Amino acid sequence: MKRKIEIFLIMLLMIGLVRLFAQSPEVYWDFEKIQKGKVLEVINGKWDLLEGNYAEAPGIRGKGLRLDGFTTCLKGNETKTLKVGQELTVELWLAIGEYPWNWCPALTTEVGDTSGFRLTIGPYGQVSMEACIDEQWKSCTTGRAIVPLRKWIHLVGIYRANKGLEVYVNGERKASSEISGEMKGSGGNVLAGMVASPRKPSDIHRTFGTLKDYYGLEGIIDEIKIYGVALSPDIIRENYLQTKLTPPDIRPRRLPTVEKDPQKFGAFYTKLKYYPGWDNLWPVAEDPDVVVTFDNSLVKMVFWRGTRHSPVWVSENELWMADQSVEAWNDEEGCFEHMQDRHCRFSHVRIIENNPARVVVHWRYAPVSVNENTWRRDLKTGWECWVDEYYYIYPDQTAIRKVSWKKGTLEFPRQFQESEVLLQPEQRVCDVVEKDFALVADYNHRIKKVSFVENANKPPYGPFSWDKTYNYTVQQFNFKAKNKPFICFEPDNKMWIRYENLNSYNLATGCNHWPVGQARCDGRTTVVADRPSHTIGFPISEPVVHEAGGREFWFGLYGMNEMEIESLIKFGKSWAYPANLVIDSADFKSYGYDKSERCYKIENLKGNPNILVMNLKGSKSSPIFNLAIQVKNWGGNGAKVYVDDKEADGSQVGINRTLTGSDLLVFLRMESESNVQIKIKPL
Question: Which of 79-88, 497-506, 608-617 has the lowest mean pLDDT?
């Protein structure tokens, strides 16, 4: 009897060992040993290649591998030892910061369309287990949002020949499908975290304006295991439950903040940070970006690589407002614009002037296509269309945007302006703007609301037509912030207005190939709020185009402040219909008001410091509202400013030194609809 019991116990032990061996992985990466660009595969003791910008990160236990979404992948050759029979299980842990551009394998052994298997993540948070059978890919796919952002997820994919495919998420079966046939081999080498071949993003607008690209998963991966058997539901659930989880080290991919905002007026070179995976792509040294800050205000003007240096106004509560660059297009490559310059190869920003009264920033770019071809390149000279945008920025949180190009290099078709509200990840339209999202007006105080409505395509709101424009000259976006962005245009501006459907108000709508996207894509519809995007777009304006010195140009008055619409109209009128200036001092000459700089231009003819007295003829039709004065060849080191013989309260004075001398800049905060005397005395 004792002998029988001993035999029985031995048999039980042997059965247990067989089961244990059968349920042990044949391939296993735990990412505990990473060195010199390689990671140890535990079972076979081989060192496999890590490509791209990778980093160690806290895993579910010990270490995991951080994937940057652009370059990082694991390459192994364990399929040579992996014997795929009638069953197979892929098991891993994953946490992602944003969804991939399209379907992307967490692990694959695919070889084209001929062999292999893969466990993949979709662009909306789906999971799919797939196997190539008779050179046809069979799949088993979950619904959307199975994979949440910034949380550890236990993923299991199962293959059974002539039976089916299954997907388990966090210990529960989420999808299954029947199959007939079996895989003929395991495919090629193992690839984890990256597509095996270039693919186009999902939800694109124009196929001819989008190119295939490599892309990967962005997040942390850990504990990758491949089994030669199909794990049971109980084992899968046990593997999930026995793991004690801590939140992964992944923060929301929010647009950059200025960590130490001086709240002083001035322009600063800096290097804004987004998140390490994206930041590490850029082969730049310090100070590639420019930020302008304002006195006693959290409002900022940001010229950042993530927006291709296109300036963005940022409110006190971090709401972002951008505008379109010069844009052209054709039917072969799509749009030519700054959005396509994902590496900023054709975009550069620099500070021209920086003093207490005025900042001038220069943004130079060439409109380019997804192919990085420039617009209207001359085959003889090699030159193409280049655009120079100068921003004359003043302490009252306003700026003149002057856009110019060499005559004959742009031509048609073209577009100059399109209002772009930027959304943070997980931010909806309703988080940024009110239902009445914009106000438009003219300088006669005719005001109109532009809103989210039940049906924007039905009268009286629609249908929208490019043949119908309005003569409005002012637009203000109704941000959920104290400071609201606005634009004032010259008279004779043409404005297109489009209402928005109310069903999109509580959604993250628009496009997300820009601002920060690196995909070569001319438009991708936002379906999931996993990454920054741009939205709304309207109103769109066609400003008045001027010509001088062989160049064409237009300009507008931009800003973000606390003005109500009536004050904003008055403010815009002071720029569009400036008060006449008369000089009462000898040795000074007036060149009038330069609307392209929002500034009265005066010259000291002798260059010796002297008192400058002038009179401004303010009126209701030509109001005075925060004015700037430039005196070329001032000859002094500063000045005191008086208004009607009283020292001006809060005047800001700056000296801009040039090769030909020193210029005086004066900025005055004041309002008047009557005559005003201004006196400037040298220090």
Answer: 79-88
Where residue 318 falls (left for φ over 0; alpha for ψ -120 to 50; beta otherwise) is left
Integer angstrom CA distances of residue 230 from 18, 22, 25, 168, 517: 15, 9, 11, 12, 39
* Strands 398-406 vs 419-423: parallel, antiparallel or unpaired: unpaired
pLDDT, tens digit, 9 for 90 and up, residues 15-70? 343 344 458 999 999 999 999 999 999 999 999 999 999 999 999 999 999 999 99
Scored b (16 or more CB within 10 A) or e, 242-266 reads eeeeeebebeebebbebeeeeeebb
Residue whose token pair is 């815009």: 572
pLDDT, tens only, 486-499: 999 999 999 999 99
Q: Residue 283: which CATH number?
A: 2.70.98
Residues 6+ apart with CB under 8 A from 465: none
Backbone angles phi, psi at 447, to 5 degrees: -120, 140
For CA atoms 363, 536, 425, 123, the dihedral sign is negative
Report field, pTM of the whole predicted structure over 0.90: yes
Residue 261 lies in a domain: no
Domain that holds residue 376: 266-561
For residue range 458-484, what is the model confidence (pLDDT) as tens digits?
999 999 999 999 999 999 999 999 999
